[in-house]
Each structure stands twice: as structure tokens, then as C-alpha cells.
Amino acid sequence: MDGVSREIIEIVELEPIVGEDFIVIEGFPDVGLVGTIATSYLAEKLEMVEVGYVESDELPPIVSVRNGKILDLIRIYRKGNLMAFISEIPIPLTLIKPLSQKIIEWAISKKARMIVSLTGMPEPARLNIDIPKVYVLGSTKRVLEEALKVEGVEKFTDGYIAGIKGMIVKESFRRNFDALLVLSQAHFNYPDPGSAAQVLIYLSKLFSITLDVSPLLESAEELKLRLRDLMRRTAQAMQDVQKSRELELPAVYL
Amino acid sequence: MSSRRSLWKYILDEFRRIEQELRSMEEEFYIKLKGVEVMRGCITPLYNVYESGDELIITADMPGTSKEEIDITVGEDYVKIEAPCRSPVRKIGEGKYILHIRLPVEIDQENVKARYKEGVLEIIARKKMKGVKIKVE
What we know:
The complex is a heterodimer of chains A (about 250) and B (about 140). Chain A has helices at about 35-45, 95-110, 140-145, 165-175, 195-205, 215-220, 220-225, 230-240; strands at about 10-15, 25, 50-55, 65, 70, 75-80, 80-85, 115-120, 135-140, 155, 180-185. Chain A has about 250 residues and is α/β, with parallel strands linked by helices. Chain A has one domain (about 20-245): Rossmann fold (3-Layer(aba) Sandwich), CATH 3.40.50.10900. The longest helix of chain A has 17 residues, at about 95-110. Chain B is an alpha+beta fold and about 140 residues long. Chain B has two domains: about 1-40; about 40-125, Immunoglobulin-like, CATH 2.60.40.790. Chain B has one helix and eight strands, in the order αββββββββ. Chain B has one helix spanning about 1-40, and strands at about 40-45, 45-50, 55-60, 70-75, 80-85, 95-100, 105-115, 120-125. In chain B, a hairpin with a 3-residue loop joins strand 4 (about 70-75) and strand 5 (about 80-85). The chains are: A alpha/beta (about 250), B alpha+beta (about 140). The interface of A and B includes residues 188, 194, 228 and 236 of A.
């Protein structure tokens, strides 16, 4: 297959990242932009610092400018043993598999403890739900056991996971590497800060992080407006990976 | 072997070309959408239209307004929604939501209800059912 090989994706460290026991969180845009909102909020509130970025010719030729500073589209932030991948664009279809493999290889090379993918679980009746439920899927038994220790969280048992989140958990499963997928009931193609807040509450309990999500909920309407264009583009990209499959049950039992 | 490879390359090139065309069409759509929004000072909300049994459900993501200010006009085959949008986001500022949706089926205008919750407007309309009942033999 003449696809994109992971060799043409580079994870560039601004300075060598050293440490141990890293928890690598990714919040690439998809359902309800839950991962994007949660990861960005976490990075801001914990005052994480940019430590690297992802480089690839397959990324669109765009730079992001914030307060006069030129930024890459997919950046890595760090505070202590927490690292976060934040993207300003939905991951292009051609990059999904090679990028997921590259991130896992990089995390293993950094002796990371685990990768945590944050996402929304499409819920057509989201409007009737005040507090979205949080589900977890682990690539290994040990990470799942750890994840289920938090009260109130449920195990994701049946369904499809499309896109880069699914690829990360599948590739980690094959390599016996710890990856945890955290899903919260969310609007499919509307930004959902309420759902992101539940993911953050869960993470704060799992990793004993002190985090107040009330400012996130207070600025929910502003966030929804700000993220409208990213959501529109992400909705388009979700079609490419058959994200609507997540509303279906698997077709076979075995 | 080499003819199989060239066929494979041809198919891949075709896929890339189609993908590129789709991307161009998508980009054209975004340019037009944003152009209209900037020119008219209006905001096209994200929206969905679903059919569920004898109901038609329309939802629209419209943060920054209030239920008292949302103006909904319902026709047999269209819904028009207008509302002010007060945004602290600099680029959006004070704007107006305008959404005009052509419906996939006719609806009973007398049987429509709406609610607004956490920035999302939901309209549920009863479909206009035409036809006669048939007995199963």
C-alpha cells in the first residue's frame, strides 16, 4: 500500500524530554470535541509548557498564530510527568494509522506509563442527560483494573471506536502497552464542554490531580462558539473514518 | 507483475485525484459559508435533522442566546430560525443566528414544539402523514 509511512512523521522535542512514569494524554478532535476541550483546559489550568510538536508533510500547510507567536498545528505540552498532545485540526485520514503508531513508539521510547485518549461517546439523546456518564476501555487488563477503581466509571463493553483513538488502543493492545480510552456521553457534532468536564473530573480522580472544572462550565457557551469552525471541519473528517459507526453495535458476536 | 503494479498505481492516483477534488469542494463550501457570515454579520449554526418514526427532529447548536429571543417560523416543508447571538469571542462579536432549513418531509405545522437547553435548540415536529390505511390479510 502506497500510504503514508510513519517514518515521514516526526515528533520533534524542543529540548530532550527526560523523566519517567510519563502519562501521555491525547485530545485529538473528534466527537463533541470532548478530547480537545478537556486536554486544552488541563494544559491551561496546570500551566503545562510546550515541549514539542508533530511534523509531517501530510499536515496542511498552515501555521497557527497566537499573540504574535507562531505555533505548530499539533503540539506537545508537559508539566511534571503529564504530557498532552493538542491539535488544532482534525487528524487527516492518511495520518491516522502512522501517527497512532508513531505516538505509541515515542511513548514507549520515553518509558511512558500509559497513553490516555480522551473522547466523546455519541449520544443522540444527549439533550436529556444532565450529567454524562464516563466509560473506559483499556488495552491491557492492568490499565483497565486501575481505571475502574474510580467510583462511577463504567466499562466500555460493546461498540466501535473509529479514528485515531481506536487505532491507538488497538496498536497498544497488540504491543501489550497500557493505553486507556476515556469516553463520555456527548453530542456527536456539537462542541460539548459539559461532557469534557466529566472526563476531567474522572481524570482528576484517577491521577489525583487538583482541578476545578467550574470555570470550564461557566465559559461553556463562549467555548462552543469559539470551537464552531473546528467542529464543522471535524464533523467532515469524522465522515472519512465512519465515525457514525460508533452509534452501532458490532455486527457479529465472535 | 509490472502491469499489475502500474494498474495499482493508476488506481491509487485516481483515488488521490478524487480525494483532492472532494477537498477542493469542501474548501469552497467553507469559503462561501464564512464569506456570507462575514458579509451579512450572521452565523449559520451547526445543525442536524433526523427522522424518528412519525416525528422530525431538528437540533441546532446556538450558544449565546436565550429561549425568549429565538424566533422560529415553521412552514410545511421548511423551518426558519433567527436569534441574536451575544458572543464574547472577538471575531464573532454581536451577531445573529440565521438558519433556513428545507425539510426532507412535510410537517404538520400545528404539531411542533421546541425547547432550548445548554445552548442547543431542539424542534420536534409531527410529520404530515398522507395515505390510506391498509388491512393486513
